[in-house]
Amino acid sequence: MMRPLSRLGIRRRGIDRPTLRRKSPLPVWVQIGWRVALVLGLLLFAIAVHWFERDGLRDNLDGEVSFVDVVYFTMISITTTGYGDVVPVANHTRMFDALVVTPIRIFFVLIFIGTAYTFVFRRTWDKWQMARLQRTLSNHIVVAGFGTSGSEAVDELIARGADASRIVVIDCEAEALDRAESLGCAVLSADATRDTTLKAVHIDRATAMIVSAGRDDTSILITLTARHLAPNIKISIAVRNEDNELPARQAGATTVINPVSFAGLLLAGSTQGAHIADYIADLASSSGRVQLQEREVTPDECGKPLSAIARGLGVRVYRDGQPYGFWEPEARSLIPGDCIVEILPTAKTEAELGPT
What we know:
It is a single chain. The chain has helices at 5-8, 12-16, 28-52, 67-78, 91-112, 114-136, 148-159, 174-182, 195-200, 216-229, 245-250, 259-270, 276-284, 347-353; strands at 20-22, 57-59, 86-88, 141-144, 167-171, 186-189, 208-211, 234-238, 255-257, 290-296, 313-319, 322-325, 339-345. By secondary structure, the chain is of the alpha/beta class. It has a 7-stranded mixed beta sheet, with helices on both faces. The protein has a 4-stranded antiparallel beta sheet with strand order 10-13-11-12. Helix 3 (28-52) packs across helix 4 and helix 5 crosses helix 6.
């Protein structure tokens, strides 16, 4: 559920600088491991250069620079100890220590001091990661609100085969975003009613948007903002009050879902038969045996009746925005531009049936 910012206590500065992120595919131990490997790699690099350029070093104890002396000198140089028993005497060795070893020393300090890493690199890393994700955002789905309805919608999208990495979830609740991120979605902690937030997720390049903010007024405002920024995007919105269905459509929603009304329809339908509600739920869920699909008519289907379509069972035709049932005259001859709603078996059902 998305709540007003005053209730969440989120600073406006944090909202003005939203951070888009996605869960790293690498486990924690791998992320720690590559940092350790980087440290060891830099250390071995410094040892190797000092060993090959050992003529530029002088051991004030015995006059000979052994491999142990090289390792010792490299370690005390990187840790800034510097006892003076082994010192660089050649110009090229001194330049290497000044221009290479010194940056390595600083890098070591930043890696091993976690607080310094967090405050020095984290913001830059987040900005870079956000910019990288934004460059790849295209034909994605934006979900505003990751409460009960929003999370169910995302779960269903993924179950139907949608790529989780192409789904962007916007919410203000950290727990909700953590769950969305665990699914592989990109997440944004921000207020979806603001232009800057929707621009950050490139709403203009998205194929669809799902709005389920938990409050009808917030959902309608999000829809209005999204429609302003992306005139052609498909927007599906969930509203709880029947009186808000018309304002939601006027705000630019393509589809308006009222969970309360839909539940009432299922309850009423169940009184006419024990299996009606089951079949409707079967159509709506990816785990069922059948599914609804909407598509444009193909060239070879033009001129044929809706009952003769190539794949599924045609139940409705949309022509110039008007719906026509399979029994109406308009459905007796399909024309280019028609949109068909058909019932198909799910992939699971087709697998059970086998090749035909």
